[in-house]
Amino acid sequence: MSVVLRNAQRVVPVRRAPLRRAVCALRAALGASRFDVGLVCAGNGLMRRLNGAYRQRPEPTDVLSFPFHRVAAGELPRPSCRDEYNLGDIFLGVEYIHQQCRATGEDFDSVLAVTAAHGLCHLLGYQHRTEGEWQ
């Protein structure tokens, strides 16, 4: 299936092909290659609005995930029809991530791929609301 990537911001240049390859490789490693995933590269404004609307935190953040299915951590969905082969959407706060990388000296493309992996884990039911879940 596919990874659909949309760049909805113009502040930070995004190398789409390496990001798409990283997400495809991770989907394969997790046994989820047959599921679609949407990736949206967003600026601080959109991330602030989404974070405020869905998490009541009106501030930019690095990643927000919107799962299509509710699954237990690590389980794959069990679609009943072709239209349900969708894990959901990941919004990457690329402007926020870029600002953090400039402050820490980390490589932007590497951090972007790791952050996308974090978002994909959320689509597969992993959460970190408590210290135990974080560990």
Give a short overview.
GO terms for molecular function: endonuclease activity; metal ion binding; metalloendopeptidase activity. The chain has helices at residues 16-29, 44-55, 94-104, 108-123, 131-134, and strands spanning 3-7, 36-42, 63-67, 86-93.
Overall structural class, as computed from helix and strand content, comes to alpha/beta
Give the proportion of residues in helices: 40-55%
Quote the distance from N terminus to C terminus.
Answer: 31 Å
Main sheet specs: 4 strands, mixed
Q: Please report which band the strand proportion falls in: under 5%, 5-15%, 15-25%, 25-35%, 35-45% or over 45%.
A: 15-25%
As for the CATH topology, it is Collagenase (Catalytic Domain)
Domain module count = 1
Rg over CA atoms: 15 Å
Query: What is the CATH architecture annotation?
Result: 3-Layer(aba) Sandwich
CATH class label = Alpha Beta
Strand order of the largest sheet: 1-2-4-3
Low-confidence stretches: none
Order of helices and strands: EHEHEEHHH
Mean pLDDT: 94
Strand segment count: 4
Number of helical regions: 5
Structural overview:
It is a single chain. This protein has 135 residues and is α/β, with parallel strands linked by helices. The protein has one domain (3-129): Metalloproteases ("zincins"), catalytic domain (Collagenase (Catalytic Domain), 3-Layer(aba) Sandwich). The chain is 42% helix and 19% strand. It has helices spanning 16-29, 44-55, 94-104, 108-123, 131-134, and strands spanning 3-7, 36-42, 63-67, 86-93. Strands 1-2-4-3 form a 4-stranded mixed beta sheet. The chain starts with a strand and ends with a helix. The mean pLDDT is 94.
